[in-house]
Amino acid sequence: MSIIEDGFSSDRLFNQGYSYTYDDVIFLPHYIDFPTDAVLLPTKLSRRLPLSIPCVSSPMDTVTESHMAVSMAALGGIGILHSNAASSDQAAMVRSVKARRVPLLSAPVFKSPEDRIHNDDVFDHGANPYVLVTESGAPSSKLLGYVASRDWVKLADKEVKIYDYMVSCKDMVLPWSSDLGRIEEFMAEKGRDVAATVRGDEVVDVVGKEDVERIRGYPKLGVGSVGPDGSWRVGAAIGTRESDKERLEELVKAGIDVVVLDSSQGNSIYQIEMIKYIKKMYSDLDVVGGNVVTVSQAQNLIQAGVDGLRVGMGSGSICTTQEVCAVGRGQATAVYKVASVASQSGVPVIADGGISNSGHIVKALTLGASTVMMGSFLAGSTEAPGAYENQNGRRIKKYRGMGSLEAMAKGSDQRYLGDTAKLKIAQGVVGAVADKGSVLKFVPYTMQAVKQGFQDLGASSLQSAHDLLRSGVLRLEVRTGAAQVEGGVHGLVSYKKKSF
Ligand SMILES: NC(=O)C1=CN([C@@H]2O[C@H](COP(=O)(O)OP(=O)(O)OC[C@H]3O[C@@H](n4cnc5c(N)ncnc54)[C@H](O)[C@@H]3O)[C@@H](O)[C@H]2O)C=CC1
Ligand SMILES: O=c1[nH]c(=O)c2[nH+]cn([C@@H]3O[C@H](COP(=O)(O)O)[C@@H](O)[C@H]3O)c2[nH]1
Ligand SMILES: [K+]
């Protein structure tokens, strides 16, 4: 029997002179000999940083602050805190992530018994259900009790001191490192519906029964990303200016696990010098360089000593770089090419930008990435910074590019106006994304969909997918415009798309 050629090998497909993105390419199914649940997704963000799911949140000021970072770590991924803030504020975000072990949406507020609560600002209009009362009103002082928003609302006289109506807190304290299960047990033992966590002399957090129930309502959390000291792992972005060295020092003191050099074009003298500086000063800290999209860009940063590479130029949903600067690359080609060279040095690749569904994640990972970094996919979640707004009857959250005029005006300004640049040109837009609920719910469902994709490919792990691709066993094709239409929902008068 003669051998019939079917599909292309990745090598052949990506060497035709086209810049392909995720939607352009499709994998041909392979052979299934294991169940979906046998697919395992543990991976690495960078050389020394393991994760149990391949998900990373973007260092953008409408995506990753402490709530997002805690939840990403609780899911087994990681969040990269943005740097569009004073270095002290970015370091405070790191400390906040490191302090808590439960993915809460509130931030503890402290008062002294002598204080009065005149209005519900301290409860953030219901978002913060409890105020903690300590002797001095600071976290590092003796815990005396708490005030619940639901009790305060019923208070006839709001002028009385907290002392007169707070609930005393005997038996409500447990160590900061207690996980949700332990906190739940503790509440049951003590017959309480509120618990506080403490670390040394510092009161860290307050957990209510409603928090426990909310989190229990989501899919069961797997193995979270915790460091050797039991705190959540977290990363932070910095730039490549002189002032970023001081920022880094603060971030390292606050306990970051990885630093990401945040630039649209990482192959620069500034970045290479910064990588060498960090490797010399902080040899225990993993450094992710980028962004890159070509083999030679990647080689330069690998040679400089990066522990991870972030791939993507102009592929992001809010990016206008390719239009403005005429440089970049289709994301599927970029991930494949960079991963081909990075894998030879054992440097993990982060596929950054352009992810809008689980299929894109399967494609990014199979093409060689170890993780995907997402902005718009996560920006509509409860954990993203900012409040929901109403836009034509839809609940939305603001989402903006870090190179948009608005974001630059807030802080990244100095990167543009610092020394030589005189005129500001935007490379991103300001927009909005739809409410998606909690990442604690939709990320696990997305990972289940990714596992189904891997099963169809006959790959039971990321490594196995990479091996199948590179050995030429896994075949691909380019989809024509018509094939892409066919691959989507088509020909219906109307439909509702609900995946879970
Ligand atoms: N992934 C992507 O496609 C893109 C991402 N972005 C995002 O926008 C933000 C800003 O990105 P960029 O503008 O690329 O930031 P950047 O800080 O890398 O570059 C800004 C300008 O400053 C210059 N510069 C950097 N370090 C310097 C130093 N030490 N001395 C003198 N000049 C120096 C750069 O060459 C560039 O002209 C980041 O958050 C980035 O992730 C922006 C555009 C595209
Ligand atoms: O050209 C750009 N102008 C910008 O203003 C900008 N801000 C962020 N980014 C990059 O986009 C990624 C997020 O993309 P997604 O929303 O598609 O996940 C992010 O992770 C970044 O790599 C930008 N790119
Ligand atoms: K784009």
Automatic annotation (TrEMBL):
The record's principal subcellular location, in a coarse class, is cytoplasm
- Note the subunit structure: Homotetramer.
**Name of the protein in its database record:** Inosine-5'-monophosphate dehydrogenase
From which organism does this entry originate?
Answer: Rosa chinensis (China rose)
Source domain of life is Eukaryota
| Pathway(s) where this gene product acts | Purine metabolism; XMP biosynthesis via de novo pathway; XMP from IMP: step 1/1
Which EC number(s) does the record attach to this protein?
1.1.1.205
In Pfam terms, one family for this protein is: IMPDH
Family of this protein: Belongs to the IMPDH/GMPR family.
For the IMP dehydrogenase/GMP reductase domain, which residue ranges apply? 20-490
The UniProt note on how this protein's activity is regulated states: Mycophenolic acid (MPA) is a non-competitive inhibitor that prevents formation of the closed enzyme conformation by binding to the same site as the amobile flap. In contrast, mizoribine monophosphate (MZP) is a competitive inhibitor that induces the closed conformation. MPA is a potent inhibitor of mammalian IMPDHs but a poor inhibitor of the bacterial enzymes. MZP is a more potent inhibitor of bacterial IMPDH.
* Substrates-to-products reaction catalysed: IMP + NAD(+) + H2O = XMP + NADH + H(+)
- Give the EC class as a word: oxidoreductase
GO BP annotations, alphabetical order: GMP biosynthetic process; GTP biosynthetic process
Active site: which residues? C319, R415
Compartment(s) of residence: Cytoplasm
The UniProt entry, under PANTHER family, shows: INOSINE-5'-MONOPHOSPHATE DEHYDROGENASE, INOSINE-5-MONOPHOSPHATE DEHYDROGENASE RELATED
- In the UniProt record, which is one GO cellular component term? cytoplasm
- The secretion signal range is none
- Name the SUPFAM superfamilies on file: CBS-domain pair, Inosine monophosphate dehydrogenase (IMPDH)
